Fold these 2 entries.
Entry 1:
Amino acid sequence: MHLNSVTVRAPATTANLGPGFDSIGMALDMWNDLTVTRGQFSVSTTGEGADILPQDTRNLVVTGLEAAYNFIGEPVPGLQYRCTNRVPFARGLGSSSSAIVSGLVAGSALSGANLTIEQLTILAADIEGHPDNVAPALYGGCTVGVRNGTDKWIVDQVKVPEELYAVLFVPEEQTNTHESRSALPDQISRTDAVFNIGRAALLVNALSSGRLELLKYATDDRLHQPHRTQAFKAMPHLIKAAINGGAHGAFLSGAGPSVLALATGREVTISYEMAETARTHGVVGKPIIVAVAHEGASVVSSS
Ligand code: HSE
């Protein structure tokens, strides 16, 4: 059956989770909606990023949808894209991935191709360049993704305790991921590699076994956080405040500037401690308490 319109939702995501730079990510229960309807091309956005995002073919929802059609070798039809964005834009919460993934899932459904989640992951990770936001946006929960060869991505899900919550502090200031990545060194010492390898493994094991007391060691990092502290001096203080408030572990979410704490209780205290620390360091922003999303992007309606 030829669909005329498809509505898709895709979640926010947090990437890196401390030591899992460009590899580990987790979906959060905060969603962007995209409706695509056959008609003359247009893009409209309401909500987060509406005043900044391009309302033309440069918008990543269009990039995602076109990637699905290009993959199956069919021409892209004329479409109206309507975005309702709730994921804070350019704050390290996967707004780009949410857009790419929602476009891909919409294109897959509208074209009738019904691509597999593995195919969607490869297409999405190729657009984004790394899988730590797009994979959890597609699978839900926590994922580990690695590149295998030049054109494949291997993704697996990590079991996450149902009661796990994320406490975020989301600064008003935006981060340009491209610029933030260019501040990172190309080479690291063996000591730092060992530091992160052990912690990334410990992180995955702690989440899947439920031994959350290990997270205070397992969320530490030497690959990106120390370098990104130069541009965001309050970061280590926010991480410390979250731990003092009762979080199991805390880290810079993606390229930042949001800081995310993992908790199973005391969420309000943690958010208060983070907000107070932000205030004393002159960082304007807001705390948000959000559950882990155990489902990934999906079609919510079609006609
Ligand atoms: N792993 C990525 C980074 C996530 O830290 O730069 C942001 O796209």
Note: Residues 15-16, 21-22, 130, 132-133, 177, 181, 224, 254-255 surround L-homoserine (CB under 6 Å).
Entry 2:
Amino acid sequence: MAAFDNPAFDDHERVVFCRDAATGLKAIIAIHSTALGPAAGGCRLWSYETDDAALTDVLRLSRGMSYKNAMAGLKFGGGKAVIIKTPGYSGTDALYESFGDFVEKLGGDYVTAEDVGMSVGIMQVIARRTQFVSGLPPQEGHAGGDPSPKTAWGIFNGIEAAARFKLGRDSIAGLRVAVQGVGNVGYYLCGYLSRAGADLVVADIDPARVKRACDEFGATAAGLGDILYQDVDVVSPCALGAILTAESIPKIRAGIVAGGANNQLATDADGQRLADAGILYAPDYVINGGGIINVASEYYDDADDDEVMRRVAAIGDRLAGIFEKAAASGKPTNVVADEQARSIIAAAGK
Ligand code: NAD
């Protein structure tokens, strides 16, 4: 496994291979950058075809966290961990404690939290061995807990900014929004949009979740294969990544794509493709930064819930700046966001 030759290697500061034979732990922690602060990013539990695939994933995701944290204005660098689900994997407390030991040995250069496959309960086990963990149950009057409502609040503010920029609309009332995926984030987003008077179309592979959105928010249900191509103002992907492709983009009728899913662009070139099609794209890692802002406020214990909501709402202005810069420079919004993230990290001087 050659880390330096891996195409996802981006001069990461440190890559730590963690093995504990006694508990079966096999994990990789990647610290992309600590220029802005401790490298923060969740731990993913996943079954990979090869160890190389796990390395690629953690390298790519940790760089993404550097960009996301920089654009969220946080005192966090970028990092990520993966715990490799080996055949016959059993997620014992001892295994997660061992992972906590590895995190602790990094002395605070990496701060872990939940990602795919993890839970608050597992974070509490990890926290028995390390203080460098977030995503724990909130204490009364402090930030923390489920980040999804905050992520949705950031997306709502981002949609407002996009509608103002692209459509000249000062209000969400009457805006038609198609939401792909009404799980945690999508559900809370529908709540904010519906209370502001938007008309909603939703789709989800889980019919119960579709029904909940229709019953509670008066949404209309659409087919799974049609949700991106509705006659609406905004498409909001809140389920899967890699849904904006050479095939899907020409069929999108909305003028705005603004949603919470990670890695929405199949390739960087799809950002240009959206721009060429006249579609305003809100870069995913900027618009969905509400969750990590919540995590940072918990970790630093420096804000109550109202203050976290204010910090998350600033995502709207941040996106407006990206939209203006993209329009002035002729560059796609994803490229402008990447450039801004890199320059914030470089200015921090490490
Ligand atoms: P979730 O699992 O609660 O919700 C995802 C929903 O999408 C589920 O209801 C699922 O049934 C549905 N879905 C899956 N495939 C679908 C398909 N093909 N078409 C329509 N619906 C489909 O997850 P979540 O926490 O709401 O996260 C949603 C997205 O936002 C993910 O990409 C996640 O990485 C990203 N994200 C989440 C947060 C957060 O705070 N939870 C923060 C940043 C980014």
Note: The chain has twelve helices and twelve strands.
